[in-house]
Amino acid sequence: MTVARTPPAVVARILEARPSLFLAKLALVSAYVLGGMVKALDFPGAVAEQIHFGLHPPALFAALTIAVELVGSVLVMTRRWVWLGAGMLGVFTGLAAITANAFWTMPDGHDRFMATNAFFEHLGLIGGFVLVAILAHREPRPVR
Asked: Domain extents for the chain?
């Protein structure tokens, strides 16, 4: 069986289209933009969330969460310091997965199943951020 190394022409056109990378990055950061905006508009709710997860001082962690979600997303989307934005969001996602989805501490059952799924979904997002940083690093730079 031969594996095609190049995609069909229609797929190649989609992958090469300028909006494709922008839209893919927007999809990747969309939950962080939404989360950061919601937390910024409801700061008491953001503080309550930090208390729920046992993070102290909760107001500081709420402010840091908002900053990481919004600044990291802007850096990924604007193609400036993509490595930093992707790193911020990737580390944040890893810490959030460990804090909110510690399935290994739960008894068998539905809650453990849901936390396991959420944990591995977070790992997938981290992989997406690594790929975005790799793509940005490999992108040709303008000659100055």
From this structure: 28-138
